[in-house]
């Protein structure tokens, strides 16, 4: 069925599919790990049990999200050798070490402390457990550091030398490669997006339970914390996004032209198009609705500043405008919707009605998945906007693919679609099931359940529990069991 298909297009679709699935899990786990660290820190500082209950509630969800992120990331990485072997060969001397650093630092840090974080609450001291939680949160951010450094170098390649074989070799300083021109902006923008994604998921769960019972103190607390994040961080994200856009204009002008829908140059000020239907063949934006000169004001900080259009870029070097034009507007639209929810929550907080305004709760519930949509739309804008280059201006995507026939790629793509929706669909269903249950006093962590301690092997002996007895009241050592207390 794939005999007449384009092998390159199928390879791109497969990578886009797998990386989109993968991206939603780190986008959640980065923010959720930091949220867990905040909850545990508040519990240690204040001694209030509600923070510990919320920590244990979200810890179960984090464990599943983290596991799905690791599994989906492994599958995605194999495609560098299967579908993109030419890219791996040519860019490997630069890309390979950076990705190895991610494993040696971030993954080892996360893996080393994850077990203590998940299962060590009753095994180690409070301070050591809190340290483990902090290390896992730090590890997620370090992972983002290295992966975004790799991606940013592909967007703005510097610090390399070209070998006679055509390979990209590192130059005199690795720091030039790591801290390439777009990396700081991309890192800040992405990490903030992860925090906002988590905030709106937490806010949606809190809103769901407030709609059912507005007296639930745990739901009130998590909703309040999420709305603080939305109110304070959403404006920062808009500022960070603007700075990232200016950096992109400097280094990848064709991408910004596509984002803005500017097929033609505007020597006396460019409009900001709110709506339109891009036509790449005719090189025009049909049914355009825009605000005169506003694009020049945003990008050049002057109403009459000239802006070049795609008419200055050869057709073979232009990205596909339609995808970028709309994905960018989805991302920006969701960003301003987040800003609106944050402002609405501030108004409710000022009036003492944060836990009472049901329309705010309904809006927050509706915005629950918005962060995932925004990060995927942002990724599409970034990656499709780089086309037709895999290393911007130096290596075309068509020249980086493996010499595979379309049926081979198509068959694996179908397998990925079926398996991903089955496996990750089941995982997502279970996460939603956990979120459906309200947090409560004496919340269980990932180690214990209503039927007793979980074991990896059936032959592992465990303490006998009396039916109906709270597992947390069981004797913790031999002396306690014999002292008659």
UniProtKB/TrEMBL annotation:
Pfam families named in the record: Cyt_bd_oxida_I (PF01654)
Organism, as annotated: Aurantiacibacter atlanticus
Single GO molecular function: oxidoreductase activity, acting on diphenols and related substances as donors, oxygen as acceptor
Keyword Nucleotide-binding (UniProt): no
Residue ranges with Basic and acidic residues bias: 469-485
Highest taxon, organism lineage: Bacteria
Swiss-Prot/TrEMBL keywords: Cell membrane, Electron transport, Heme, Iron, Membrane, Metal-binding, Transmembrane, Transmembrane helix, Transport
Entry's family note: Belongs to the cytochrome ubiquinol oxidase subunit 1 family.
Signal sequence region: none
Keyword Membrane assigned: yes
Coiled-coil intervals, chain numbering: none
Protein name: Cytochrome D ubiquinol oxidase subunit I
UniProt region (Disordered), positions on chain: 443-485
Transmembrane regions: 15-36, 57-78, 98-121, 128-148, 187-211, 223-240, 323-347, 359-380, 404-432
An example Gene Ontology CC term for this record: plasma membrane
GO biological process, one term: aerobic electron transport chain
Membrane topology: Multi-pass membrane protein
Compartments where located: Cell inner membrane; Cell membrane
InterPro entries: Cyt-d_ubiquinol_oxidase_su_1
